[in-house]
From TrEMBL:
Domain UspA per the UniProt entry, residue ranges: 3-139, 151-288
Name under which the protein is recorded: UspA domain protein
Pfam families found in the cross-reference section: Usp (PF00582)
Family label: Belongs to the universal stress protein A family.
Membrane-spanning intervals of the chain: none
PANTHER family associated with the record: ADENINE NUCLEOTIDE ALPHA HYDROLASES-LIKE SUPERFAMILY PROTEIN
Amino acid sequence: MAAPIVVGFDGSDNSRRAVDWAAEEARLRHRPLLIVHSLLVFASVAAEIDGSRIEEMRAESTVLVDDEIARVRELAPGLDVRGETLEGMTPSVDLLKASLEAASLVVGSRGRGTFASLLLGSTSSQVAAHSHCPVIVVRGDRVGGDAKPGHVVVGVDGSPLSQSVLRFGFEEASMRGTRLVAVHAWLPPAPADFGDLLPTVYDVDALAADEERLLAESLAGWQAKFPDVPVERVCVRADARRVLKDESAGARLLVVGSRGGGGFTGLLLGSITQAMVHHAHAAVAIVHPGH
């Protein structure tokens, strides 16, 4: 069986929007859809809950997932969709386990957590950082059935991971019949450490030409593989977080790598990626190394 598109579902409006997105992704990629619901009944809690209540919770979860499957089948007839209720330690543990066998994983930006003022839910944050497959965080009220699909924005930084990011972005743009906007933002060199000195003079025009060349070289092979995708290049001297956020306005999807070429390599998510999953105007796809 083909690897499924997996989506986390907890009954919230955000998770239902994530299911809509995942159903469209599954249809476009000709893959089955797996709706995963987490029932938090594990040893330390189960000992304090009456056995009949546990069975009641399981029955409620079954009804919740079955109703969602029925809704998806009505919206997307012919789509291979099934549901699964897992009883792990946390929803993020269940979803990360499911990501081992998934083509991609879709989550809402927020679920039914307690702190509604947080920009991103704890489950979404954990999944975005640790997933074994690409993750799509569905932000705002953009869902799968929007009449105007919007374009695909891809962040390009020249790192080895950029090639996987571009592949995912070109696939999405090709499937959706839309254009791709490749964004490369750069800044002049900065001191590597306190006290380091930089040349007092450097050629900004030469730096700009180098960055334009980097973007063109990064795109060359993918434009040949996806001749049906119109490509717009944005190469600017600016902070990447601001540029990507601005470019995501009106977009269908923003695609970024889990880490870029600089900063602290031990971190699971780069600062630019973290900023996008919190503040982008569109759904955000995070591509991890190896995918």
